[in-house]
Amino acid sequence: MKFGVVIFPGSNCDYDTLYALKDVLQQKAIFLWHKEHNLKNVDCVILPGGFSYGDYLRSGSIAAFSPLMQEIKEFALKGGLVLGICNGFQVLLELELLPGAMLRNKNLKFLCQFVHLRVENETTPFTSRAKKGQVLRIPIAHYDGNFFSPPDTIQEIKTNNQIVLRYSDDQGQLSEDANVNGSLESIAGLINKAGNVMGMMPHPERASETLLGSEDGRIIFESMIKWKG
Amino acid sequence: MKVRILVSLKDSVLDPQGQTVKNALHTLGYDSIKDVRQGKVFEIELEGISEEDAERVVPEISDKVLANPIIEKFSWQILEKD
Amino acid sequence: MKVRILVSLKDSVLDPQGQTVKNALHTLGYDSIKDVRQGKVFEIELEGISEEDAERVVPEISDKVLANPIIEKFSWQILEKD
Amino acid sequence: MIDRKILEEHNLTLDEYEKIVELIGKEPNITELGIFSLMWSEHCSYKSSKVHLRHLPVKGKNVIQGPGENAGIIDIGDGLAAVFKIESHNHPSFIEPYQGAATGVGGILRDIFTMGARPIVLQDSLRFGPLSSAKNKSVMEGVVAGISGYGNSIGIPTVGGDVYFNDCYSLNPLVNVFALGIVKKDRVFYAKAEGIGNLVLYVGAKTGRDGIHGATMASAEFGKDLEHKRPNVQVGDPFMEKLLLEACLEVMAKDLIVGIQDMGAAGLTCSTTEMASKSGTGIEIDLDRVPQREEGMTPYEMMLSESQERMLIVAKKDKVKEVQEIFSNWDLDAVIIGQVTEGERLKVEFGGKTVVDIPVNAVIDLCPVYERESKIPSYLESATQLEPLPQPENFNQAFLKLLSSPTIAEKEWVRRQYDHMVQVNTAFLPGADASVIRIKDTNKALAVTLDGSSLYTYLDPKTGGKIAVAEACRNLACVGARPIGVTNCLNFGNPEKPEIMWQFQETIHGIAEGCRAFDIPVTGGNVSFYNDTEGISIHPTPVLGIVGMVDDVKLITGPGFKEEGNILILLGENKDELGASEYVKTIHQKEKGIPPQIDLEEEKRIQEFCLEIISLELIESAHDVSEGGLATCLAESSFLSREKTGLNANLRDEIRADAVLFGETQSRIVITSKGQNHQKILDLAKDRKVKAAVIGKTGGERIIISHGDKKLIDVPVDEALKAWRNAIPEIFAIK
Ligand SMILES: Nc1ncnc2c1ncn2[C@@H]1O[C@H](COP(=O)(O)OP(=O)(O)O)[C@@H](O)[C@H]1O
Ligand SMILES: [Mg+2]
């Protein structure tokens, strides 16, 4: 399994993601530069967190126009695995590889904290090592993570079982309090209809070692590794 | 040529920023304020382009870049002709 | 009554957002774009207030709440009268 | 012609002007005068503080770079070095809280990566007026948002800091920002302009009319005419700085450049002259080549502009192309604007004419130095007299009130606006006494803390200085870190007032004594004078930033209780010292009295002991007693435990009950241990001549503290937790 972690100008979780993959999980992982037109034969692309282009205009919007994103779009349409973390999720929304958009957090403040996530769909390549209903403890760090989509879109998302992770309490219960950023349907992680492109606001790379307070994030990466066999 | 583009959230989308501004204004005693919606404005200077081309380019970049059509709408006007 | 207030950075103040948007548009091939400045727009609905009072209140709240007079300027217009 | 009015506008005295004329052998033109006014300003020249800063100890076997560069450097082993510094952005943050604080972050980060280090830590030390005022609230909201907006975007974790509230900061908030980076020991870069004929490159944001006179502004008092003095505020662009950071580090990783200097306060002026001065060379630049954001800028404006996110680089002549390619890959232009010359002069061209031609050393080294008059402040006599205070009728109520006073209350409202986890090094101890940052590929970690109680310093500056050092080191000891280096930010009023100067001198002596006791070198810092508005000065506020070393990251210890039934042990001794305490301030509304005293030898023994029992893995938690006293310390350990474990403590000291609970006697740490270890700890303590006493047990759902036979405090953990946790969020709640 070879991972490619994309660097946009302003990405700042690129090294963290590479570190989790290479040093913690002992996987092959390389950087991909946004200006190139070459995916270097990776099996999976990760769009890392950060503030691509300063998040000016809208979070993730300018990165979506990067040269490499055209390659990634094709890669995704052919079934390649793509995971967008935080800013990466926002880029995938702007690129319309995933449905919906992000609004500012409901308290209008940046939020950096651990949250609990309930696994809603364990059949995806990104959650195959989790159990349905399992609660993961993984941090978030974002300003615009308040997921929104029009009524017909959200209906479709639900019908297709595209919600992968929801903000919950430590017991797996949904509530307004647990839904820290105000996301529609408490959505924290979302997959496309084809089931190969996922976006998630929480940062699994920040929860891959006990020293950092949790190892629950490894489940996401380990699921992908297992999926590829 | 100078154009102005207004981008704002669609009416169906909740605007927490506008809400907060409204509440702040109420706290200050401005009770006549019934609703506030907040959006973005871009003032763009164009050069070496005909009015006709601008009529095509401006909505194009608004739709493609400046606004996210899932949540936002836009309008535009020419402020200064060449 | 409905008013629109435009708030933007003073001309001499750096506008990193506008600059970045301009660069992005250039990368996409829109070379005719010479400058972009980004600001905020507020659309406010007022109720039970005379036009005269509005003429006083709107600049007041713009200066006090909506704009940061140290780096921003504002302008406003009435969109709909009662 | 330069007249009196012009000199006044440039904050230069007639004597200073005459000295300038003598040094450069001619009447300066306006641009040259502007250059001197900047570089001879208090902010840049340290003319009032220099003679006193010399008292700080700066030597140590691990010091690679002491004061005098952009940041200090300490060897941390494994071929690595820690580069760190603290900087104030007080005046800009008052004028425009968001941008002022944001550009403060940007500035201190440039100081770190200019030296070749990748920044891995930010901390902020904040002082505001009481939150009952809407203005103070909005200043705090803006400052926190500004730090968050810049630090989060550029991707450097803001892992800690402190926030205090006091009336004296209402018109003069303090924003001090600390940053630390890691560099390979043999890859440090300095601000040098060596090699005649090497080229001078300008990189980063374009120059605008930003913050012209910012440095001189930070060197004068604000009066009522503040509104008019508002200079063009600088707007931070963290995205630009992120590009600069990555590109500069990439350039530095290759052998392409000779020297590099950031352009912060005093911009082009400071960077050109400092680089030349350090290398004994001259510099020639052509302003027409400087990238400009605004039209029609004069040489004066360009030389004095404080536009952010700019760097000046001296590159080897034959490597310029390679340098430019790297910058271009990050979408940045590196423009050649001049060259290194012989003859130690700064020459500036504009429109084909020479507009500046002055000797570099006149600007940098020959600035006048003042030994300003000092005098014991008249307020001290009455302020140190604390009249007899009644005991609270209801200790529970007093306790809850203290917990919810903003200085003591939980600061999560602040912390969660900061990305404190990016870079995956933050060992997760929320609310710990010091932040712990692991160093990848080693077993080590660095611990960082900022500290400084201005109330102590106001009432006894020397003791305040000592305590600031001791307390910062104690914070480090509590997580298991040994102090290795110090940076400090000295925030004071107008140094032309003898009483302020006295505070300053005394504080420095206190800090120096503290540092000597712990044998830690000061590697740099910052002095911020003129923190007065409308004639009112802030309390003298030293902020100490101390860096500690953790040899084995697995052994770090937190402040929260681990489990029920552990033994509570107090290291140190309770004394009847209530003066200058948060308790007296909050419950009795008095900022008076003699602050707690400190015996540095005893303090050191206790800290050594704490480090020893942590390394022996004998304890479960450690938390130092500071603002709010013992009761607050115990409560916090309960709040920071995973299960919100309660406690039952019984104190037997024969002193006033409120002094036992809330006094701020120094040199105390509360630790917990498993039952089987506690005797070992007590025995060892005896051997190490450290006072240690069992004071109770953890467990239950209540916080119970008795004094002798009297139960003073008995409240459910939940209730106390609410008071502590909700205080600040409630003040800022969106209605
Ligand atoms: N309080 C202090 N203690 C020790 N060194 C100090 C102190 N204040 C300033 N310095 C040193 O004086 C030098 C100049 O400081 P400063 O002008 O703030 O640097 P910069 O221009 O890089 O921000 C620095 O090396 C700094 O470390
Ligand atoms: Mg510097």
Task: Walk me through the topology.
The complex is a heterotetramer, with one copy of chain A (229 residues), two copies of chain B (82 residues) and one copy of chain D (735 residues).
Chain A: E1 2-7, H1 14-24, E2 28-33, E3 44-47, H2 67-77, E4 81-85, H3 87-94, E5 101-103, E6 111-119, E7 135-142, E8 146-148, H4 151-159, E9 163-168, E10 187-191, E11 197-200, H5 218-228
Parallel strand pairs in A: 1-2, 1-3, 3-4, 4-11
Antiparallel strand pairs in A: 5-8, 6-7, 6-9, 9-10, 10-11
Chain B: E1 2-9, H1 16-27, E2 33-46, H2 51-66, E3 72-80
Chain D: H1 4-9, H2 14-24, H3 30-39, H4 42-45, H5 50-53, E1 63-65, E2 72-77, E3 80-88, H6 90-95, H7 97-113, E4 118-128, H8 134-154, E5 158-165, E6 174-184, E7 199-204, H9 214-217, H10 226-229, H11 238-253, E8 257-262, H12 267-279, E9 282-286, H13 299-304, E10 310-315, H14 320-329, E11 334-341, E12 345-350, E13 353-359, H15 360-364, H16 380-383, H17 395-403, H18 412-415, E14 435-438, E15 445-451, H19 454-459, H20 461-479, E16 482-491, H21 498-518, E17 522-528, E18 532-533, E19 536-537, E20 541-550, E21 567-571, H22 582-587, H23 600-615, E22 621-624, H24 629-639, E23 647-651, H25 657-662, E24 669-673, H26 678-687, E25 692-698, E26 702-707, E27 710-716, H27 717-732
Parallel strand pairs in D: 4-5, 9-12, 16-17, 23-26
Antiparallel strand pairs in D: 1-2, 2-3, 3-6, 4-6, 7-10, 7-11, 8-10, 9-11, 12-13, 14-15, 15-20, 16-20, 18-19, 21-24, 21-25, 22-24, 23-25, 26-27
The structure holds adenosine-5'-diphosphate and magnesium ion.
Entry summary:
With 229 residues, chain A is of the alpha/beta class. In chain A, 22% of the residues lie in helices and 26% in strands.
Give a structural overview.
- The complex is a heterotetramer, with 1 copy of chain A (229 residues), 2 copies of chain B (82 residues) and 1 copy of chain D (735 residues).
- Chain A is α/β, with parallel strands linked by helices.
- In chain A, 22% of the residues lie in helices and 26% in strands.
- Chain A contains 5 helices and 11 strands; from the N terminus they run βαββαβαββββαβββα.
- In chain A, strands 2-1-3-4-11-10-9-6-7 form a 9-stranded mixed β-sheet, with helices on both faces.
- The radius of gyration of chain A is 16 Å and the shape is globular.
- The termini of chain A are close together.
- The model of chain A has no long low-confidence stretch (mean pLDDT 97).
- Chain B has 82 residues and is α+β, with helices and mostly antiparallel strands.
- Chain B has a single domain, classed as Mth169, Chain: A.
- Chain B has 2 helices and 3 strands.
- Chain B has a 3-stranded antiparallel β-sheet with strand order 2-1-3.
- The mean pLDDT of chain B is 94.
- With 735 residues, chain D is of the alpha+beta class.
- Chain D is 36% helix and 24% strand.
- In chain D, the strands form 5 sheets. Chain D has a 7-stranded mixed β-sheet with strand order 8-10-7-11-9-12-13.
- In chain D, β26 (702-707) and β27 form a beta hairpin.
- Chain D starts with a helix and ends with a helix.
- The relative contact order of chain D is 0.12.
- Residues 224-230 of chain D have low confidence and may be disordered.
- The interface between B and C is medium-sized, with 33 and 33 residues.
